[in-house]
Amino acid sequence: MSVLHGFPALLQAADPNMPPVSGMWFYIFTIAKIMIIFGIYMVGVAMLTLAERKISAWIQDRHGPNRVGKGWLQPAADGLKNLMKEETMPAGANKPLFVLAPILSFIPALTTWCVIPFGAPWPTRWGRIDMVVADLPVGYLFILAISSLGVYGIVLAGWSSNNKYALLGGLRSSAQMISYEISMGLSTIPILLLAGNVSLNSIINQQAWGGWNVVNLTVAFFIFMVSAFAETNRLPFDLPEAESELVAGYHTEYSAMKFSLFFIAEYANMVTASALMATLFFGGWDVPFTARDNIGPYSKWLSLLSIGIFLAKILFFVFVFMWIRWTLPRFRYDQLMSLGWKFMLPLALVYIVLIAAVMLGLSAAGIPEGLWQTAILGSINLGVIILLFAILDRGRIISPAYGRMHPREIERLRLLDRQLEKRHPIVTEAGK
Asked: What is the pTM assigned to this prediction?
């Protein structure tokens, strides 16, 4: 956290001595940023498939891919295999929509990266280069709008395949993603209340002044993270695919590169969700203990350091995504819907009212942005967490393994089971 005093207004403004590039150079640098960022992004997504295999092998105490280039060329081998495979088309499929579906899943996952800032401004003799492809003033709203289009690709894939398993996967996905999109959007309203802006750079600068939002808005981070797992169809929310139930869900009938596009889109969404969590709750690219990356004078080494910090945060959350996949079991579908509508949505609404009331009280008391506000919000969040998870929940609502039966009834059945073992030990051993 950058410790800044006495100039919060400057955090919203650029360095007046270093204006942004303009004219022809603006277009040249924008094209260069597009080529570099999306080139690295696509290669990185491909390497994440190898990372997931290696991490799962490490968790399960095995080797993982180690044949093609000692494992490092496995993504290239998979890509070549998918390029060489035959494209299959089901006889009863709707061909235009069948082809369009993987494209609709892939493009929104890629497009959302346009507005995510990934580093401090880069100084040049032609002016300041902002480390974002398109610095939109409504950046976060753009992400919500574009990312919500991904569900159409999955629904169309399920319907156009003319396969009952694919259709069930598409129906599950539409219900799941729409349900958790609401909670995800509501969880970010407290962030906008603190930042007073929907620009992602403004949110990063606000955290440089007032502390990371994960401390100020811990419950909002919890809701956002759970919703991000559901939005990316990752375990324990992979009901649309559910190999043990639906073969492969909405992409059962797909093969070759169309099949690969769905997996590329899943990993791209995972990286985007990780970047959003780092930006909204963990300070984004902000370099701790200095204000130069926010208000200048800018330097190239500071820009490189900020890019490295942001990349490290993204890789941490990507690892968490993979870690959770190989650790937790899948939710039942009724638990999935119950968690979204009966717990996440009411919690998000109550939390918005609570944070709005606290912000209004702090404003009326004349407490400015800074360490005091962070301390007060952090204390309130700690109390809410204790009330929510230690007193009200107690591991029954959040846990995917909870049952509808009352604990007293479960204890009574356990007692009967122990009595049966004492009376008929031979029968119970045979049953085991």
From this structure: 0.82
